[in-house]
Amino acid sequence: MGSIWKEIAKTPSILQDIQKWALDNEVDGYGVLKDALVLKTQDNHIASINTKFIDQSHAMKKVIHVYTFRNEYMHLEWDYGQDPYTEYDFYFSLGIDGYFSDFPRTARQYLDWKRESAVKLEL
To answer: String of b and e for 74-94 (b: at least 16 CB within 10 Å)?
Structure first.
C-alpha cells in the first residue's frame, strides 16, 4: 500500500472524507508526513509547498504534527543548508503545531533556542 497522501493528491475528496470523520469522531489532530506538505525534486530541493491542509485543519480546530525529522544529510533538503534547525524553523513557519523526530535532543534544543530567541526579542 502506498502513501495515503499520494492517493489524496489524486483524489482530493478523500481528504474531505478524512476531515469529516475526524470531526465526527472528536479527533484532536493529525500526524502528517513531511512530504505531504513539502514536495521534493529528484535532486533533493523543495519543489512545492502545500499549506492548504494546515489551514483547513486549523479552521476545524485540529492540530498538525509533522513527521519524521532527522539530522542525517539524506533526510534534509539542500534548501535547508543541511541544518536541522533551519528545517524545523521552515515547518514552524508553515503553521504546524508539533514535530515527531528520530532525534529528540535536536528537537528539544531547537524549541529551547526558539523560546530563548522570543524572550530576547520581547526585551
So the answer is: eebbeeeeeebeebbebbbee
Query: Cα 46 to the chain's mean position, in Å?
Result: 14
For the segment 57-103, what is each residue's pLDDT rounded down to a tens digit?
899 899 999 999 999 888 888 999 889 999 999 999 999 999 999 99
Question: Is 12 domain-assigned?
Answer: yes
Quick one: DSSP state of residue 91? H
Number of domains the chain is built from: 1
Which residue(s) pair with 33 in the sheet?
Answer: 67
- The 3-state DSSP class for residue 68 equals strand
Q: Residue 83's domain spans which residues? A: 4-116
* Residues recorded for the chain: 123
- Cβ neighbors of 2 (< 8 A, separation 6 or more) are none
- Kindly state whether residue 122 falls inside one of the protein's structural domains: no
Of 3-7, 12-16, 37-41, 69-73, give the lowest mean pLDDT range: 3-7
In a domain, residue 76? The reply is yes
* Cα 31 from Cα 119, distance rounded (Å): 29
